[in-house]
Amino acid sequence: MATLPIEDSVIIGRILSPWGIKGWLQVHSFTDPREGIFNYGPWFVDGSSVEIEGHKVSGKRLVVKLPGVASPEEARSWSQKDICIARDQLPAPQEGEYYWHDLIGMTVINKEQVRLGQISQMLSTGAHDVMEVSLVDSDRTVLIPFVQGTFVDRIDTKAKELIVDWPIAWLDD
Q: What is the value of pTM for the model shown?
């Protein structure tokens, strides 16, 4: 069975819970469109490769059948596990576009060169994406709109730094 080092992987979804009586599993996809999760393979779960025996859309659900999983009881052992793929399966982003997984963990610095913290997660709000930044020396977080040219001034993927137009005064309670 093939394995994939964590640094070479990207999470594209999550196995949720059993579906039906024949060992199928519900899947939550992080891809857009959501059915795109089935275009990638092999999947890696807990670092080991997993082939897909079958998949389908059932109403609003995405469901998958894995080899050797024939009952809800067997399926339950797969519940709440991340689905990863090799990073090199993803197309290169266009100029000015970024994958969320490349932004998470970046250091956020404002234009006054004050290190604010690190991006802990990205959120989709419908209008635009939002960065959740874990502040330096604090258990607090701040939400900063990911709007390039307005709040996001520059992104340096090599240095893993993101420069924002976000004055330190905006962090006060």
A: 0.74
